[in-house]
Design a protein that fits this description.
- There is one protein chain.
- The chain is an alpha/beta fold.
- The chain has two domains: about 1-80, no CATH class; about 105-180.
- It has helices spanning about 10-20, 55-60, 105-115, 120-135, 150-160, 165-170, 180-190; strands at about 1-5, 25-30, 70-75, 135-140, 145-150.
- A three-stranded parallel β-sheet has the order 1-2-3, with no helix packed on it. A two-stranded antiparallel sheet has the order 4-5.
- β2, α2 (about 55-60) and β3 form a beta-alpha-beta unit.
- The mean pLDDT is about 85.
Amino acid sequence: MINLSEMGMTDDKLAYLLTKLPKRSLLLLEDADAAFINRRQRDADGYSGATVTFSGLLNALDGVAAGEERIAFLTTNHVDRLDPALIRPGRVDMMVRIGEATRYQAAQMWERFYGDVDQDGSCKESFLQRLDELGLFGTSKDGTRSNRQTSTAAIQGLFLFNKNSMQGAIDTAEGLIPRKLEAEETMNAPNRQA
């Protein structure tokens, strides 16, 4: 894994690191959309962090001196911010969006975390029913479309927090509702008088 925004990362250092990758290896470049946006504040000595250029990245990935027999993964939260030269065919052969959690994924995750203690699957069904009630699979309990969704990472975090308590995971499932969405729903709710 190479962080393009890491302090001290330069074109030369990036090229050197990539030439030292063993053959048949995987390369992960995280937050490719943020690599060339200088959002960091300067230190007291005036240094602001990485100085990898876009041209330097392209040359390191597939320039004349670039290594071969590797698979590179680029992650981004904003695919629209990626330069077309970076994601052109031949440089990026496949784009996969890892979206929100589905009911199937939540069930499979439950099996991996609690399958050995929830042998009859009753707690899993309670958990999935709770997520359905909360509208976290894109539909609310009355069958209408819901804006609420959650990520597999959030579900994993919930399970880790409740690793010794299946019931705890069920009881705290409401914590999977993204806080920003929860605040918007509260603001958009009709005013009720007591």
